[in-house]
């Protein structure tokens, strides 16, 4: 658990909904703004929420700006109002850190028949004159 989550310091500074007032791909965003944006804003009084119209030939998107200075943009093209609410909640609850995959150890029932890698594998060389593998052992003291 991060220290920000422990004290519930909201990391989202600003949420900007960019939509087309007449475009078909912004239909879900307009419905979200009409029905769910006010309760969403009341639940997050610390966040600045902007709704900005864009030209009709552009698709809608949501832009989140965090206290860390990092910005995220999520395209909302042809999404329903429920999907827009899901993306808005996800961005509002995020910490603003860089998104990365979680590394987990590889577990298997059938281990590799080649064996585990060791640093000595990288040391194996094939001299041109001999024609066989020479493995250099580390010096022990």
What is the fold's blueprint, element by element?
Blueprint: H1 3-7, E1 12-19, H2 27-35, H3 37-43, E2 48-53, E3 61-66, E4 71-75, H4 81-93, H5 119-123
Parallel strand pairs: 1-2
Antiparallel strand pairs: 1-3, 3-4
Overview of the molecule:
The protein has 141 residues and is of the alpha+beta class. The protein is 28% helix and 18% strand. It contains 5 helices and 4 strands; from the N terminus they run αβααβββαα. Strands 2-1-3-4 form a 4-stranded mixed beta sheet, covered by helices on one side. A hairpin with a 4-residue loop joins strand 3 (61-66) and strand 4. Helix 2 crosses helix 4 (81-93). The longest helix is centred in the middle third of the chain and has 13 residues, at 81-93. It is elongated, with a radius of gyration of 27 Å. The model has no long low-confidence stretch (mean pLDDT 80).
Overall average residue pLDDT = 80
Beta-strand fraction estimate? 15-25%
* Unreliable spans: none
| Extended strand count | 4
How far is the first residue's CA from the last residue's CA?
44 Å
Strand order of the largest sheet: 2-1-3-4
Considering DSSP H and I runs of 4 or more, what fraction of the residues is helical?
25-40%
**Protein structure class:** alpha+beta
* Alpha plus pi helix count: 5
What is the 3D form? elongated
Q: H/E order of the elements?
A: HEHHEEEHH
Largest sheet: 4 strands, mixed
How big is the Rg? Answer: 27 Å
């Amino acid at each position: 658990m991060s220290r920000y989550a422990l004290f519930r310091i909201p990391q989202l500074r600003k949420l900007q909904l960019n939509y087309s007032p007449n475009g078909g791909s912004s239909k879900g965003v307009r419905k979200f703004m009409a029905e769910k944006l006010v309760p969403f804003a009341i639940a997050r009084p610390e966040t600045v929420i902007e709704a900005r119209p864009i030209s009709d030939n552009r698709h809608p998107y949501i832009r989140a700006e965090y206290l860390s200075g990092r910005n995220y943009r999520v395209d909302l093209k042809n999404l329903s109002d429920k999907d827009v609410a899901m993306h808005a909640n996800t961005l509002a609850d995020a910490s603003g850190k860089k998104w990365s995959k979680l590394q987990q150890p590889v577990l298997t029932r059938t281990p590799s028949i080649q064996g585990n890698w060791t640093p000595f594998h990288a040391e194996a060389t094939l001299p041109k004159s001999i024609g066989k593998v020479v493995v250099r052992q580390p010096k022990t003291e």
